[in-house]
Write a structure and sequence with these properties.
Layout lengths: L3 H6 L17 H8 L3 E3 L5 E2 L1 H8 L2 H7 L4 E2 L1 E3 L3 E3 L3 E5 L3 E4 L2 E4 L9 E3 L4 E6 L9 E12 L4 E10 L3 H9 L13 E7 L2 E5 L1 H5 L3 E8 L2
Amino acid sequence: ELSPEDSETAFCTLANREDLNLEEGSVQYCLYQFTRNEKLTETNKLLCDVCTQMHYGPKKNIKSEKKYVYTNARKQMLISLAPPVLTLHLKRFQQGGFNLWKVNKHVKFPEVIDLAPFCTAKCKNVAEGETKVLYSLYGVVEHSGTMRSGHYTAYTKMRNMNNNLSDLVLRGQAPQALETEPVKGQWFHISDTHVQAVSAAKVLNSQAYLLFYERLL
């Protein structure tokens, strides 16, 4: 049940979504599409308990007569709790009939990503008045091959301890210091027992399957 105050902010986000300069084929574009406002109409109408009771009376009468009122509604999936560690799992398969095939298209992802446009206005673990929820990339899992076979490798960043992340995980304290740059460190490519130092540019050009970000603020 939503109070009048909640209903007014139900579709509000920490930062204006319409100000985003989205590039199709990017992680931000994927997040925007995943959290878009959807209209539920016709066969997707929402069962409304309040409307039903207004039309048919108390619930005890509704159950016996099995009468319900469905209404048009809006639905939007937003983040209500900013996690210490953000894991993004990219769907890299497509289905056509009974056939499945892997999607090899490159998906662009940044070193620092802002989740504020995808967070509810009353997002937890975010300081009041804050309009940014930043995360720094520290790990990538890449898959090469097909749907039937292949090989997983990983990119990971060797870096100093993130004190903000520790406070959030251990004490539940939202970060207070404003940090907007990615956590400094050296990237490594790991394939079975082979480990090699690589540049950030190589990481950002990889065919990401899983992305791991740590909270900055």
